[in-house]
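Sample pair:
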Amino acid sequence: MCPQLSPDEIRSFQQERGLNVTGSLDVATERALEDARWKLGDRSLYLQQSPMMHGDDVAALQSRLTEMGFDCGRVDGIYGERTEAAVKEFQKSVGAKVDGRCGPETIIGLIRLTKIVSGGAPSQLRESAATRTRGPALANKVIVLDPGNNGGESEIVYDIAVRIEGRLLALGASVFLTRGAKNAPSESERIAFTNSNATDLFISLHADSHTNPTAQGVATYFYGSDAHGVHSVVGERFASLVQREICARTNLLNCRTHAKTWDLLRLTKAPSVRVDCGYLSNPQDAKSLATPEFRDALAESFIIAIQRLYLAAEDDAKTGTLRISDLRSAGIRR
């Protein structure tokens, strides 16, 4: 049961949790309120069939294990197989019964032990290291493009996705689109599709709308939770890169990057971003998005941001200066 909250209290909670700030109890907010009820030690945690156990207690367990070097993967607050495996490894290391259940004995062990890892969460270091070791060439990268399908954005963002796809294919990347021109799979289907394809990078493309026609600009979002003290290092870096490239190459207002806990970002295993490429409700943004030249500029912004994500710092170029032709001369085009 969700507590009775005023609209202002709901908005404050939504902002704290990285949710859409609406002031109303939508499904995502109700689930987050349910998660917030549980503190580590309130109940035994274990792997169960769908629906899996979830809550702030699971996220706290994952954070604690991660700090000690046990690989839970992303801190998502869901007690899945990877979390169970990390619990078993911890239990083995402290001589506890190895059953994958986080009960009183395991929780006491967690409380007694101090952190043995410093200098950054291991999961974040692993994510960043995996990106670096994949090398600068795009020929071995798997990139999933997720064109939105809400209202008037569908045709526009699909066209932008196709333009990005063509350029990525020319650079040797493997590219998947989560939908075609006519179909509209659900969010859970798109997440499952992405997670089943060994994806290196997931990009969700959208065009925003607002009741206020003066709202305009480009904003990017990556997975991050202030409540749990976690974020995607690579997702945040790519969000920053693509935001800067778009703002340098187009007339879109810079609405900055933001950490969010939306399911599309939280449950997708690969580094993931959502990009709102302007407002269709704003006359200036809508006019720009309607032109092929502007969509080409957006596509090139994405390509260069993707390449910069995999370049070493010493090989990187100033924002807005790198061109696709430069990739060939640098020897990183197939």
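Residues 242 and 305 are 5 Å apart (CA to CA).
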